[in-house]
Amino acid sequence: MFSFTSIKDYHADLLHGRTTCVAAVQYFLAQIATKKHLNAFLEVYAEEALARAAQLDDSLTESGSLQGPLHGVVIGLKDVICYKDHAVTAASKILEGFTSIYNATAVERLLAAGAVIIGRQNCDEFAMGSSNENSAYGNVLNDADNDRVPGGSSGGSAVAVQAGLCMVSLGSDTGGSVRQPADFCGIVGMKPTYGRISRYGLIAYASSFDQIGIFARSVPDLAIVLEIIAGKDAYDSTASATPVESYSHLLHQVATPKRIAYFRQALEHAALDPEIAAAFRSFIKTLTDNGYEVEPIDFEYLDYVVPAYYVLTTAEASSNLSRYDGVKYGYRSNGNDVSLTQMYNKTRTEGFGKEVQRRILLGTFVLSAGYFDAYFTKAQKVRYLLVEKTKEIFSQFDAIISPTVPSPAFKFGEISDPIEMFLADIYTVFANLTGIPAISLPLFIHSNNIPFGMQVMTFQENDLCLLSLSEQMMQLASKK
Amino acid sequence: MLQLIPLQPFITRNTMSFADKYEAVIGLEVHAQLATASKLFCGDSTAFGAAPNTHVSAITLGHPGTLPMTNKKAVEYAIKMGLACHCEIERYNYFARKNYFYPDLPKGYQVSQHTTPICKGGYVMIKTETGNRDIQLNRIHLEEDAGKSIHDIEEDYTCVDYNRAGTPLIEIVTEPDLHTADEAYQYVTEVRRLVRWLGICDGNMEEGSLRCDANVSVRLKGETKLGTKVEVKNLNSIRNVKRAIEYEITRMINLLEKGERIIQQTRSFDASTDTTFAIRDKEEANDYRYFPEPDLSPFHLSESFIQNIQEAQPALPYELQEKYKVAGLSEYDAAQLCTEKEISDYYNKVIKHTTHYKAAANWINGPLRQHVNDAKITFDQLQLSPLQLVALIQMVEDGKVNFSVASQRILPVLIGNEELTPLEVATEMNLLQTSNSSEIENWIDEVIKNMPDKVTEYKRGKKGLIGLFVGEVKKRSKGKADPKAVTDLLQQKLNA
């Protein structure tokens, strides 16, 4: 019987003939069928995945070596990442029936490294949401408690790893959409430095915030995948040209940073669940007991991060989503005797869900003549201040820690006020506003038996430092 | 005393009578499609005339997840134009999104330069009746073109061709610095010559590679405030630019004279009637919600990048014109040589090997231009080496053949046969002029014999007939007879 612990062990088993890629794929397909009620996958590529696994097995038998660093690694894709000749809908009705004619750069690199893509995963429509309640294709359930949300927007991708439906998932993180569901589902979820992974083939929500993120059961697994898909790209001018380090090898070799800060205001925030605050404080003690210097610092901008984030992301989204107009592809409202404007209105009203429409309207408003300076320009100033603040903090510290989310996974329908929902992002949007890498580590279990995590952030392009520190913290937590 | 002017005549003819009362203020926006092989933000071809929707990758079509990458060549071309127009080149550049919905706009926004054009200020020198004038530019910026909506193929549908979508354009925007339709005509002519000269745009207005919109207003002379502006679109030839502006100025002055208000609107030119008609009022104007394009990193232009472009810049037409005038050419000849870069390039090669500047100019502006036009080619395709031309010029100067023989008999043989020399051709065809008097004498005797009446008239005093006799001798000699020797001998014989 196949069981999955880590990519390293899986590869060892493959090389020693103890298992096969086909066995792995069969195992996950069976798991997906058993856990169908979770609604994590929108489409499963069963036959294709089996065929590819068989071909990988053959190549291993023939050559005696793995075809690449991700040989036979079974990966799911959030339904916002383009995979050539496969449907991609951003969990929206407006892209119903749309098939991508090209591969995202990340997918191209996964395939070249030997990965098996097993299916596309449910999420909030156009990655907008914090609970996965905004999908046109239904809610995703948290495998730890089916009455609770898995978080969002990459809910399906988080649950797929949580419930053992694949080894690794790729999600996207614009304001916490990888870290928050990782927190709710008790797994590792990382948003690398902005631009570390090419965005080519990632359906845009907010271009200057979006970053592909990775879900895995462990930090080393995540590191292997990141080092494969990261790096400059001739199709994305915003991708970083900094050479990619061998994260998986250097993970245990680099000196672990010791100077850690946390925001005093974050721990004093009214929205923070007391149990999460207590767990966080107790982990600070574990850290200091183990030789880390952990210091509170003032962060006077905390109340501005969520408003600035929503002004800027919705502005970009209102423009990014203009292309879904019923003219070239995807959904078009039927009804022939309508004017062009009516066709646009009907198509977009029928094709987009409520939350997406809310954000398009908000974004259109903040960019409008007469309001631009009051909202967009001001929010940009906040963003600039935050970037400066980040430089200042990281001149004195190696990392910032915080709870990932102020509350544990909530129940379906529990939060109906969109503003209250936006507050779930209060700790995560900072990393997207400033472009720094951030990760959520599954360190804690709530008294209601729901897991929750802690967020770690390091300076721009210090993804290796983040991974190495995360691995240390995971070890510390397991020793406790 | 006030005079009543009948309405029709003043609309069509007597506008000039208002020349002292009103002043037109015109600003022009010229869009030039850059002659890069690929589009502004992706590798798709920009070739004109392909089957619809064949140069359309996922990026051109704005498929989900696609991103732009800036074409460096397009940036270089924009800078070339900026340097030629004496603009200030912006070192820190970024693009903006101009948001609006239209079926031929694949992404729902156009990527353009809004707040930071790559070239600022500058001017374009034009010739006017009263001398040269520098037309001040506001900016030259880069942007992508939209696709093409075609409304007349299908009865019930509009068809969209996205081949053009994403083609790089520069928009060259003047200050409101022109005052007559003729200045506008001269300005667009000069811009067209410049972009072609620099090789950055083919300048073809019919195919839409060069497009012009005119902003026209009129005001009382002496008034400093600008009048209400009308934008005229669809000007697909330089002639139409002129006619549309002429029409607009007259129309607006008429309205003002009647005490009516000019409405700020966008109008289109109808070339079949030489009139303009309103397509929309400005009150319906879009709010384009410009903001910085987040999918493209800002780009810095290094000094060396600009320096390299500057160094590779060809000599510009007005610079060459001056140079030619200094070398002794007339204003007209110099200008003719600079109408196209291929012509001046050819001339420059020729005058490397001869000092007969004027003769070289005459050859190029005369028979060679005629040949090139007839053959529908350009001077760079002319199969006559500059050295062949130099040798031909020298033969004429040396009196070995005369110009008409050289241009009408020898030149056609030389073209296409770059291995032949003019001397070989002239010798082979027996065209070299002769001053051998016995040969000439024979021809003269024949002429005198055949024209007894004319000889009698000459002898009675009609001395002007000498030209006729010389012509006859030349005809018989097939151009070989040296006209000077013929005239001398004829006079001797006739006066004997």
TrEMBL record, chain A:
GO terms for biological process: translation. The active site is at K78 (charge relay system), S153 (charge relay system), S177 (acyl-ester intermediate). Residues 24-463 form the Amidase domain. It catalyses: L-glutamyl-tRNA(Gln) + L-glutamine + ATP + H2O = L-glutaminyl-tRNA(Gln) + L-glutamate + ADP + phosphate + H(+). InterPro entries: Amidase, Amidase_dom, AS_sf, GatA. GO terms for cellular component: glutamyl-tRNA(Gln) amidotransferase complex. GO terms for molecular function: ATP binding; glutaminyl-tRNA synthase (glutamine-hydrolyzing) activity; transferase activity. Signal peptide: none annotated. The keyword DNA repair does not apply. Its EC number is 6.3.5.7. SUPFAM superfamilies: Amidase signature (AS) enzymes. Keywords: ATP-binding, Ligase, Nucleotide-binding, Protein biosynthesis, Transferase. Belongs to the amidase family. GatA subfamily. HAMAP family: GatA. Heterotrimer of A, B and C subunits. Allows the formation of correctly charged Gln-tRNA(Gln) through the transamidation of misacylated Glu-tRNA(Gln) in organisms which lack glutaminyl-tRNA synthetase. The reaction takes place in the presence of glutamine and ATP through an activated gamma-phospho-Glu-tRNA(Gln). This is Glutamyl-tRNA(Gln) amidotransferase subunit A. It comes from Ilyomonas limi.
